[in-house]
Amino acid sequence: MELLRSLQITMAEEVLSISGLVLLLVAAWGGDKASRLISILSVAVLAACALIAAPALCGSASGADVSAFGGLYRADAFAAFAKLLIYVGAGVTLIVAPAYFERVRSMRAEFPILVLFAALGMGIMVSATDLLTLYIGLELNSLASYVLASILRNDDRSAESGLKYFVLGSLASGILLYGVSLTYGFTGTTNFDGIRLALAHHGLGTGATFGLVFVLAGLAFKISAAPFHMWTPDVYEGAPTPVTAFFATAPKAAALTLMMRVSLEAYGAQPGAWQQIIIFAALLSIVIGALGAIGQTNIKRLMAYSSINNVGFMLVGLACANQPGAAAVLVYLAIYVAMSVAGFVAILMLRDANGEQVEAISDLAGLSKTRPGLALALACVMLSLAGLPPLLGFWGKFVVFQAAVQAHLVALGSIAIAASVIGAFYYLKVVKVLYFDEAADKVKGSSDIAHSVLLVLATLFISPLGYLLTKWLGGLAGNAAAALFHFA
């Protein structure tokens, strides 16, 4: 009976697993000619998994009622919120990828299957309530991601990005695993609730502190937080653009929510120990992301540094170590996923007359004169990432700063606000190139219907119209954050 209940709770992961294996057989027999069909079916699978996960979020599921396999997995509202973002990111990737890969004649049947298995790993990550479950999910996602980054076999940049990601990712996994072993050695358990109780009763000794530091360092790599950000610009630039869009959305959401669960559940009894680490990583990420982007000439590398910068702002909310801070992070994360979708779909539409990708920022000069709709969407993305009102990116920053002030972290919030001014410089520089420079007339490629529809939807969401959804989004984020504090 307990097994059947656990299987029912883990239904989304089972659907992904079985569907991935079946589609793998289809790919084996159908070859690359079946890639578009497999992509369509994969999107349908992700949509089905989203429908499975949604009731837990709407119903504010939490605690032991949604725990499976003896406390190794929890399908609560928090996990459901993260999974919906993951499935959206993965689904968008599968929608935009076929047109891109067919232009470069490199569409492979295994691509959508790798995305499915990566989504499976991420689903396990965000539902993990044990360090071993966490590691299994993390590695499943990472192994698929390494292959995705280097999927263009005839492209040296793609191969280089995959190799860099693999080497540095393996190092981060080793650091994380060492932290897990230390935590187990000094608390006697790998279960999050067990770790929390052990730390509450016995305090955080030197050994457990080292375990905490190593675990957070390994997770910081996965969210590309400074000083573990070094892989991000090279991987974002070298990987195929649909893969970069995937990395900027689904794995980012999974890793950040995983860090929240580990910090607030496993180490929640000793927030003072990890708050300092999070604050340091937040401020360093904001500064490095802003300063590193200023000299970039490639739009994908600029988005990589923007990713580092925005992760820093989200960590400000996590540093609050309370429920309003966690809810603020989730609101910001949802808005950031929408901004990333709009940004990378717009980048995919930047093509020259030969269909080649246009990535140099200087080649976008005067785009407003030749492709006004595309230029407007890209400008909205940049201004929203900068956090300028009335675009929705401002609301993400506002709720995070508000949570920091309410948690008496006024100094942290003030420094973050001041540093955000630096970031505004390079976002405004892109807008200036789009609207005020003499037209370079490099972007001439036609747009695919799927790309245009996705771009319009994502741009409308981050436009002032998105404020109509803030109450609804805040309510869902509040439900999800409350699930992290079921022990209170």
Give the low-pLDDT segments.
Answer: none
Which sequence of strands runs across the widest sheet? 1-2
Order of SSEs, N→C? HHHEEHHHHHHHHHHHHHHHHH
Q: What is the C-alpha radius of gyration, as a whole number of Å?
A: 21 Å
- Please bin the fraction of helical residues: over 70%
By DSSP (H or I, 4+ residues per run), the number of helices equals 20
Gross morphology is globular
Would you mind describing this structure in some detail?
By secondary structure, the chain is mainly alpha-helical. Helix content is 75%, strand content 1%. The chain is built from 20 helices and 2 strands. It has a two-stranded antiparallel sheet. A hairpin with a 4-residue loop joins β1 and β2. The chain is globular. It starts with a helix and ends with a helix. The mean pLDDT is 89. Its main location: membrane. Keywords: Cell membrane, Membrane, NAD, Quinone, Translocase, Transmembrane, Transmembrane helix, Transport, Ubiquinone.
Give a summary of the structure in a few sentences:
The protein has 20 helices and two strands. The protein has 488 residues and is mainly alpha-helical. The radius of gyration is 21 Å and the shape is globular.
How does the SSE layout of this entry go?
Elements: H1 2-9, H2 11-30, H3 35-58, E1 67-68, E2 73-74, H4 77-103, H5 110-127, H6 131-149, H7 156-187, H8 192-202, H9 206-222, H10 232-238, H11 241-266, H12 271-294, H13 299-318, H14 323-348, H15 367-370, H16 372-385, H17 393-406, H18 410-436, H19 449-462, H20 470-484
Antiparallel strand pairs: 1-2
